[in-house]
Design goal:
Elements lengths: L1 H18 L5 H33 L8 H4 L10 H33 L12
Helix pairs in contact: 1-2, 2-4
Length: 124
């Protein structure tokens, strides 16, 4: 997913910097950078929280303590197999959510970026 997200960075950069005049280039670069960083932070926060929630929801009620906090807490305990399965399921589910979000973002770009857009006349 990171590869898909960062591959769009080139297009986004070209669109943002291409629309900026020479005097706006510094501000445009700052806006581009902060939106990239903010998107990364929010993505990690959202998807990471979702992994934790799905992991805990996948554990049976009798599994508690350190195993409920992380799969590392279950490594030496009897519930490692169940915790491991819940961990894998959580990442698979969140991967599917990430794929859907990526597809929605691609659809939005496809619909919003004009088909005849050319960056040949962009300011450099």
């Amino acid at each position: 997913m990171v590869g898909l997200g960062t591959s769009a960075l080139g297009l986004g950069s070209a669109l943002i910097m291409g629309a900026a005049t020479d005097t706006q280039a510094g501000s445009a670069a700052a806006v581009e950078e902060i939106t990239y960083e903010l998107g990364a932070v929010l993505g990690i926060t959202f998807l990471g929280s979702l992994v934790g929630a799905v992991y805990r929801a996948g554990l049976p009620a009798d599994v508690g303590g350190a195993a409920r906090e992380s799969v590392a807490g279950a490594v030496s305990g009897p519930s490692f197999g169940v915790a491991s399965d819940a961990f894998v399921t959580a990442f698979a589910a969140v991967g599917a959510v990430g794929a859907v979000l990526t597809a929605l973002a691609a659809l939005a770009v496809w619909r919003l970026v004009p088909a005849g857009l050319t960056l040949d006349d962009a300011h450099h």
